[in-house]
């Protein structure tokens, strides 16, 4: 397709292609490196190239590599292997595959095919331009008719095969043995195959949670396809017979229930790792998925050569997935036994660290932080490519509340393992709860839904929908948020979060805060221990200027925090302090306000300047307040709650009529909706929204 570009855009593309051309030989050269050379952010580069050319940057780089390869094959003495290295392919077989997809024949046969493009002289180009200008309408009609004729007359280049999304559900493998104790090994094989498939970027592989829900539930393949929106199903069963493993695997096309292939694998236990790799490759080949050289290398990596250590690991892993303190403690013993047999067993270190994290998760006192750090560091030291190493390192920093230190591990883990649902979920939580960024929160929540759907009785899928609903409303997608929050209630009507978020989502739609208060009060009556809802009701009363009621709710909320020594919701202390002031509790108010100031000055989120602006506004320091409000206008990806409630906030009552503040508030709202539109376009382009 011809690119319709302005002179400025044409110059940008010329420079872009110049940089790409200069770096074709570098295998690792990609979007990130291109953006850095052009002094652009990765997202801005992707968006700009997509807008100008209607094609992704990666396609432009790939096409440039293959066009250079074609030129070298026709105009140099290099052989195919040498050409593949010249254009940045370390794997000749992968180069041959990409070349064939681009040109329709392998690079070794280039000499047998004539070059289809003739050289165009400036004179011919000018004559062509003149002809097109004078005959534009008729040329367009003839082109359309000719295209339709070709479309009708020519056979489909792929033999009529419909291009399907390569989405896979790996059902829990069944234990064919009468010995139920063999189940852990069958489960381990299923997990290993699942993890290997998740390494392949060309696939969409649903999570283990999605699969596990169907272990004891009888569903037909059409029902699975309908519920999970997946195209391929992998079914398996196996058993251990002496020193051998027997596995029966079949790959099914979910559209028509047709078996694409079925195979029995008989291997010695000593070949268990080769078996895991072989099954994953066979499945990928069955649906024509591309495996890059790096992905192949990660799939073929063996976690341990010690089979006894691996057997202990599988037993521990099975127990870890069951959760519960007794199971977790027992899992740790198995992991430690595995490590004693192989001190370089990175995966065992990682999973031991995760078990310690889960042991501490719901406890006020974190007993195992130091132990967890040891196991996380060992896992990363021994295997810096395993997703488990990145997960356990992230969980450690989450537990320590050192969130900024967690991000590099999440990003690198996702880069190496783009289909790992656990990493995507952690990224969603990171941008939703710890270092807020509404755009990235929504992006990863949407990706999590695509990889983590499950059946109607699933607590996990209910949480996924709650998280997505929360992410949508924070970015201003009100109707979509309400849809998914209601969907979460359809999966589990008793989940504790959906109605709480819905109360505010409905306010975004109808702007009636009295309804929001009533909905929250109804929700609180279902469980009067919900101190988080107490806080929310108090805040709604605060916006209504019903300070007496707000004080009563905040008093109860603060008793919960004190009695259970909870270090939570510190960002709300300024509001609480204001309410206490209105009720004449001056000393208590001062304590809350100064505590808030200390908290906000150490804040690492985009809301620091807004928090300081509110503080100075309340205390009448208009210059500092306006200065911080102005700083806040520089922030992107802010939560919709700011737009909905900022002008209603009593803390800025003294400044609401200030013309500079009115101008700033309008700019904050304008920028929010501009970013909302950009985000909507991006997510639509990525088929996420």
Please render the helix and strand layout as text.
Elements: H1 7-22, H2 31-37, H3 42-53, H4 57-75, H5 80-86, H6 92-103, H7 122-134, H8 136-153, E1 167-170, E2 174-175, H9 183-198, E3 204-205, H10 208-212, H11 221-228, E4 232-241, E5 244-253, E6 258-268, H12 272-286, H13 293-299, H14 307-320, H15 325-341, H16 346-360, H17 369-382, H18 387-400, H19 403-416, H20 421-434, H21 438-452, H22 459-474, H23 478-491, H24 498-510, H25 513-526, H26 531-543, H27 547-563, H28 573-582, H29 586-601, H30 608-618, H31 622-632, H32 640-645, H33 659-685
Parallel strand pairs: 1-3, 1-4, 2-4
Antiparallel strand pairs: 4-5, 5-6
Helix pairs in contact: 9-12, 9-14, 14-15, 14-16, 15-16, 16-17, 16-18, 17-18, 18-19, 19-20, 20-21, 21-22, 22-23, 22-24, 23-24, 24-25, 25-26, 26-27, 27-28, 28-29, 29-30, 30-31, 31-33
